[in-house]
Amino acid sequence: MQRIKRADAMKYEFDHRDEPLLRVQQGESFVIETMDAGSGYFKTADDLPIRERMPTHKDAEPGKGNPIGGPRYVEGAQPGDLLAVKIEDIVVGEQGWTAIFAGSGPFGESTEYPELTGPYTHIIRHDPGPSGTTRDGMAIVTDDLSWPLRPFIGTIGVAPQREVETSAVGQGPWGGNLDCRDVCPGHTFLVNVYHEGALLYIGDVHGSQGDTESYGAADETQADVQLSCTVLKNKRIEFLRIDKPESIVSVYCFRPLEVAVESAMKDLVRWLIQEYNIPPRIAYIHTCCNPDFRINVYQMVRIGRIQYTVGAELPKKYLA
Questions:
Q1: Domain locations in the chain?
Q2: Confidence check: pLDDT of 303 > 90
Q3: Phi then psi for 271, rounded to 5 degrees?
Q4: How far apart are the first and last CA of the chain?
Q5: pLDDT-derived band of residue 168, with 50, 70 and 90 as boundaries?
Q6: Quick one: what percent of the chain has pLDDT higher than 70?
Q7: Does 256 sit behind a cis peptide bond, omega within 30 degrees of 0 on the bond before it?
Q8: Topology of 2-77+87-226 in CATH?
Q9: 184 near 151, Cβ under 8 Å?
Q10: Neighbour-count burial for 47-72, b at 16+ CB within 10 Å, e otherwise
């Protein structure tokens, strides 16, 4: 199986000028060994999130975060196509970290709880699960607090048509720093193709994350990620989509939050009408009346120009 080694997965831009590190056939499984969002800086609780101490941040604006591996050239992908990226497996490292940067998050300027203003680093241990690996393991936060690991890819996308975008704050219909917990094993990520071969990049795996990722750093970790790609010819979508075994999700990034929510909902309605032949009024009724319709707020972090990431989701049982 073809593989991109961790040492080679340390780029910080989605750039169509990059030479492909892998060329893969459609349906061929491959592996990317990703580095954590801090580029390996955070190893102990003493490694505080202070920009001047972080080698990849101190001399760059925006700071070089979320290293990505790629690009991968997918045979047969052409501009005007849609790339379907199936996430097959994620095995995270032995530990992750979360960090409160000074002034970040809802309590960034708090006088009520000064310990929440940062800087602070917390190491999270990853214990293997029944498989003997961390793909189904546990996140050990303290001696008294743990939860199941639910790893996903935080930063994923293809090279944009004209721009060069950073892996730290770049987002758009080409993908980017989404921190969307539904980009996980068993799900398929759908993104437009802008260049021959698609030029796919991934990185920034999280061991677990709650909705909104409130202060901007979840369980950040390195990982081995297995994927495969197929190409849907001559097909375009408005932004990004995720196909789950039991539901479909339209993903959108924007600020303010209400615009992101409305845009994701509108694209879901179009998806229902155009691909599932659901009458427009019925599709619209789903978004207002169906108790199983959901709006997921994946990322709502006030850092630089990062947009808010949301998903409008409907179970597939309503699509038949």
A1: 2-77+87-226, 240-318
A2: no
A3: -60, -45
A4: 37
A5: very high
A6: 100
A7: yes
A8: Jelly Rolls (2.60.120)
A9: yes
A10: bbbeeeebebbeeeebbbbbbbbbbb
